[in-house]
Design goal:
It is a single chain. The protein is mainly α. It has a domain of 76 residues. The longest helix is centred in the C-terminal third of the chain and has 30 residues. It is globular.
């Protein structure tokens, strides 16, 4: 339960940061292309790499701090960062085929699931 509270607190921070990025990019660039989503996904992945290496190699932090920062803040900012880390772990283990299957499967299944969800709701509500 303790780690859940740390994840939730960090998630609130990350989600708030993402909202501010969405507003800023929307005002600066308009809504014609999802620049803010692209930005948070790339930045979140960069920060995930930096943070994981710092936590693993330089700092001896508690599970609470790791949960707050990695699962909470970055997870709330973008879940794409978690996907990127999972992919990198598979690559670094030498499991290239698994990494490619994971990446392509995640992409195809997630986009496919979104369209299924859209279709289900449209079929029910129309």
């Amino acid at each position: 339960m303790r780690l859940l509270l740390f994840a939730a607190a960090g998630g609130a921070i990350g989600a708030g940061a993402r909202h501010l990025v969405n507003i800023g990019f929307g005002r600066a660039l308009g809504a014609g292309f999802p620049w803010s989503t692209l930005f948070v996904n790339v930045l979140g992945s960069l920060l995930m790499g930096v943070l994981i290496e710092i936590l693993a190699l330089r700092l001896n932090v508690s599970p609470e701090v790791r949960t707050l920062l990695v699962t909470g803040v970055l997870g709330g900012f973008t879940t794409f960062s978690a996907f990127s880390l999972d992919f990198a772990v598979l690559i670094e283990r030498g499991e290239t085929l698994s990494a490619l299957v994971y990446a392509l499967g995640s992409f195809a299944a997630s986009i496919g699931a979104l369209f299924i969800g859209l279709s289900l709701v449209r079929a029910i509500l129309t």
